[in-house]
Amino acid sequence: MNRAFSRKKDKTWMHTPEALSKHYIPYNAKFLGSTEVEQPKGTEVVRDAVRKLKFARHIKKSEGQKTPKVELQISIYGVKILDPKTKEVQHNCQLHRISFCADDKTDKRIFTFICKDSESNKHLCYVFDSEKCAEEITLTIGQAFDLAYRKFLESGGKDVETRKQIAGLQKRIQELETENAELKNKVQDLENQLRRTQVHASPAGSVTPKSPSTDIFDMVPFSPISPQSSTPTRNGTQPPPPVPSRSTEIKRDLFGAEPFDPFSCGAGDFPPDIQSKLDEMQEGFKMGLTLEGTVFCLDPLDSRC
Questions:
Q1: Confidence band (pLDDT; 50, 70, 90) for 202?
Q2: Are the beta carbons of 98 and 115 closer than 8 angstroms?
């Protein structure tokens, strides 16, 4: 294996420093995949990972699956793995997390590097297949390391720490945006449940009847236009049915009762002593007597006119 980190310092690099520090160097390759390794570096570690991923890719190829093509963007900040058509970033391997990079001298198409995952803190080995540029890609990653190390020495380590803080803030912002989206979805679900509950509680087109206002005795005020209303009272009971009118028109009071007439009552309606006095009063009135207080006056009516 040919390690990029063991190059001589006086070796002439392939790209200008500005190309890697202000921009990036793109390469096209086939991505065999990534696998977890136990050590952050080592030739044997990389060889085992390459054999494992080659075997897995051989099985997928026999099943009709093609090896996916990717675009590598190499700079002093790291190695990005993108979809060549959509430019969507699949993996973003920061340079300070890459611990080993090498190309295989027995198979000049293969190059690989080991990177520590930012979320799981596991060491992953990424393996690529490039027919013509395997060694060149390895050297470009080595040059990016050399430029990043020089910049680290010039800034006294502040530049690397600043990039780490920025990366941490960007990760935190992404987490907050994801959490915010989840909370918005929960609020929307609660609003939808509340609307469905209101629809079931009050069906469309139904109108709740309003009960008429009552007085302090919980009675509906009297109305001469409609003395009897079909609206239920406050306690929910229905008023009694109307009393059928008699053949002769009889005036009634505001409670619907007939005026009291002692002479229209039958003989059995009063006790015998009261009935006898009523009979005497009726006979006296027929003779022209008048009633003053509780004493009968025998003066004829003509003498008072």
A1: low
A2: yes
* Torsion (CA) 272, 277, 282, 288 in degrees, nearest 10: 160
94: which strand partners?
78
- Which residues in 115-137 are b (16+ Cβ under 10 Å) and which e? bbeeeeeebbbbbbbbeebbbbb
Tell me the whole-structure pTM to 2 decimals: 0.51
Residue linked to tokens 């959509």: 86
Name the 3-class secondary structure at 127: strand
Q: What mean pLDDT comes out for the span 257-274?
A: 59
Burial class of residue 91 (count of CB atoms within 10 Å of its CB; 0-12, 13-18, 19+): middle
For 128, the token pair is 């690529």
3 state SS of 216? coil
Cβ neighbours for 23, distance < 8 A, ≥ 6 positions apart: 75
Count of positions (residues) in the chain: 305
pLDDT in tens, 266-289: 555 556 666 777 777 777 777 766
Predicted local distance difference test score (pLDDT) of residue 229: 47
Helix axes 134-155, 158-201, angle to 10 degrees: 100
Question: What single-letter DSSP state applies at residue 269?
Answer: G
Q: What is the pLDDT of residue 261?
A: 61
Contacts of 61 (CB under 8 A, 6+ apart): 67
DSSP lists the bridge partners of residue 70 as 29
A 10 A CB-CB count for 97 gives 18
Distance, CA of 150 to CA of 156 (rounded, Å): 10
Cα–Cα dist 135/111, whole Å: 7
Q: 257-272 burial, b for 16+ CB within 10 Å, e for fewer?
A: eeeeeeeeeeeeeeee
